[in-house]
Amino acid sequence: MLQEAQLLAKHGNECGVDTRITVYPVPTHDFHVFWTFLPEAMKAIDQIGAFIRDRTSAHTYPAGGQSRP
Q1: pTM over 0.85
Q2: Which of 11, 39, 42, 58 is the most exposed place for a label (fewest CB within 10 A)?
Q3: How many whole angstroms separate alpha carbon 18 and alpha carbon 39?
C-alpha cells in the first residue's frame, strides 16, 4: 500500500494538490482505529485534523454549510 499511496501523493502534487505522507512504525495500515490505546494512532489523527484545519481555516462558506464552487 505504501507504493500506491506514494504514487497517489505524487500525482496529486503534480496536479497542484497539497499532499502529505507520514509513515508510522506500526504493523498495520488501519492503525487509526486503535486511537484509544495506541499513541501513534492519536498522533496521526491529530496530524490529519491539523492538516484539514490549516487548509480550511481561510475559507468561508455560505449559510447551510455548502461549499462555494
Answers
A1: no
A2: 58
A3: 26
Q: Give the distance, in angstroms, between the CA of residue 39 and the centroid of all CA atoms in the same chain.
A: 17
List, for residues 3-16, the tens digit of each pLDDT value: 998 999 999 999 99
- Reference 20, options 41, 40, 42, 50; nearest CA is 50
Give helix then strand counts, H and E, for the chain.
2, 0
Confidence tier at 1 by pLDDT (50, 70, 90):
confident
Task: Tell me the one-letter amino acid at 53.
Answer: R
Beta-carbon count within 10 A of 19 CB:
15
Q: Please, are residues 20 and 51 in contact by the beta-carbon 8 Å criterion?
A: yes
Q: Domain residues of the chain, as ranges?
A: 25-58
